[in-house]
Amino acid sequence: xxxxxxxxxxxxxxxxxxALALGHLLASPRADLVGVGTVHGNxxxxxxxxxxxxxxxxxxxxxxxxxxxxxxxxxxGFSGGAVAVHGADGIGGVRASLPDAVASPGPxxxxxxxxxxxxxxxxxxxxLQILAIGPLTxxxxxxxxxxxxxxxxxxxxVMGGAALVPxxxxxxxxxxxxxxxEAAQATVAASWPVTLVxxxxxxxxxxxxxxxxxxxxxxxxxxxxxxxMLDVYLNFYETVVLGRxxxxxxxxxxxxxxxxxxxxxxxxxxxxxxxCTDGPSRGSTVCDLRSQRKAPGDVPGATVRVVLETAPxxxxxxxxxxxxx
Length: 325
Ligand code: BDR
Ligand code: CA
What we know:
- This protein has 325 residues and is of the alpha/beta class.
- It has helices at 16-27, 45-58, 83-86, 107-110, 113-123, 137-145, 175-178, 181-189, 199-202, 209-216, 221-241, 250-258, 291-294, 314-323, and strands at 6-12, 31-38, 66-68, 128-132, 153-159, 194-197, 206-208, 246-248, 264-266, 269-270, 272-274, 285-287, 304-306, 309-310.
- The strands form four sheets. An eight-stranded mixed sheet has the order 3-2-1-4-5-6-13-10, sandwiched between helices. It has a two-stranded antiparallel ribbon with strand order 7-8. Strands 9-14 form a two-stranded antiparallel sheet.
- Helix 10 (209-216) packs antiparallel against helix 11.
């Protein structure tokens, strides 16, 4: 694994696992977080920016620009958020206990999230990595606003989709894709290298009550806030998803994969399309894996790497990184 330092633009709908991903990026020696754009999803886009600014203040990183992005998907309105999963404030009720966001650079300093992404793509041309861990609306707008963007991006890592496993928001659709299928289709169809980190692998990396307590009792204020907010997330996973007190590390795992910190065991580059019809499979990610039966590996001309399986043990790395903040 290389120790390259990657400039990263984070696009997020700051809920609980987004907060973990933000912490991972701030703590990893491989990431240089150069900007954050927010989007509708777990919470409204402005609320996601407020959460992000407060979390950055908690980590002493008010130098990172934050910009508000799309409040609604390309088609339709804001879903109302994921209160049952992430709490009404998106971060498990801890927002009010976090430092004020007033001293941080606000959206007015940076334009909207799309402006910020395009500006950073010039500043870090050929190097910028995009980590998208919410609905892909900002990326879709950016592709329209500046079609040359694709030429300046080193890679796009998306937490989203379900290749061979059930969805979570709908029977066949994962939440980030479900919230804006048209934007997801635009993102996977564009000619930049995309790495899709779907539920197939994120559901295999969980954090249980033992790790949550360790975070809640850590010396690092950021880790403690994560430990506290994770209580809400684990409640949801225990009662609705898994039947045991452990929750999937969707968004932070995508950060680790982008940075090359988790080994990929099965991750072919294949053709992917998002179902944008109005039927029961709307928002599903149709990954053409037929070739894998005969000859596992990359399909010539395909631009989307679908991460199906990764090495275990990520929860330890994440916990150590958060404790170091
Ligand atoms: C994704 O949906 C959101 O609720 C999480 O933050 C994550 O990005 C998981 O399906
Ligand atoms: Ca998210």
